[in-house]
Write a structure and sequence with these properties.
Layout: H1 4-31, H2 34-56, H3 62-85
Length: 87
């Protein structure tokens, strides 16, 4: 199990990721731009990944890396999609 300080920091990071996701979803709702939807989904995924860290207390497991990779690939896809569609 993680120490109380580690749990607090994981919770703070989860809240920050969740706040960023809500922020991007709100911009998607206002603009309809898919870029914001993908960024919101990526940050929501990272926030849920932090919940997994809190539940298990061990972030060195492969599924957590796969989820983090999926979130980063969503960010990359959003950037590529935005640059390709603007041409």
């Amino acid at each position: 199990m993680s120490s109380p300080l580690e749990a607090f920091l994981l919770g703070a990071l989860m809240a920050a990721y969740g706040g960023a996701a809500v922020h991007f979803f709100r911009f998607y709702h206002l603009s309809g731009d898919r870029f914001f939807l993908l960024f919101g989904a990526a940050f929501a995924t990272l926030s849920l990944n932090q919940v997994g860290f809190l539940m298990t207390g061990d972030e060195a497991r492969t599924p957590f890396y796969v989820v983090r990779l999926a979130a980063y690939l969503l960010i990359l896809a959003a950037i590529v999609q935005k640059n390709v569609s603007s041409r």
